[in-house]
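Exam revision sheet. Question 4 asks you to relate a sequence to its structure. Input first:
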Amino acid sequence: MAKTKIRAVFFDFMGTCLDWHSGAIKVLPQSIAESERSKLALEWRHDYFDANTARLAANGSPENIDITLRRTLDALLEKHPEHKDLFDDRIKHQCIVAWHSMPAWPEVPQAVEQLKAAGYEVFVFANGTTRLQLDLCKSSGLRFNMLFSSELLGVYKPAPKSYSKTLELVNVKPEESVMVAAHTSDVRGGKEAGMKTVYIHRWTDDIKEDMEVIKTENDFFLEDMTSLAEVIGQL
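Answer key, structure tokens:
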């Protein structure tokens, strides 16, 4: 049987393509030690994922990411009262706005351009708002064929409907597509939808997951995107 030709590559955005951690620790109060800012940023990010998971489990519609981030930041500071007085409304607002301006991981721009040059269509497929994704494309310099947000789709990833609706909109079959992500939930959802999957290991994400298990679940497990075009060419 002839191998199905891959036509489209779908990227998770924050974490997978973008180094959110460096941006987050820059905007947190600098009077907090860098090591502690790093811990706070990682915890905030984890709490944000938990909030989305709870909303999806309750069949809730996607919430504006800025609202979710503010709510989870307020809750985070309640858990860390030693830092609470450092965050007035202005600082909190700056912390939220910072998520709209994150840099790409160093190797990502070339990886995306290599895929486009090889004839693949490349898409962002991520939770958040369309405004967030437009802003992040500006800050990172990354260019895609289309941006699919949970706001636009009306459902959070990794709900099965998010995958089926996205694939339907671009008229691509699951077996003709690849899900690229640094989150197990994203690639597992993609695999269940019939997509090929490439897991990108980022130290900032999936910090509680067993990487040895993840290595066995995907078509490829990569430490970065340097060889992404090459491995997708093998699918």
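Marking note for examiners. The longest strand covers residues 121-126.
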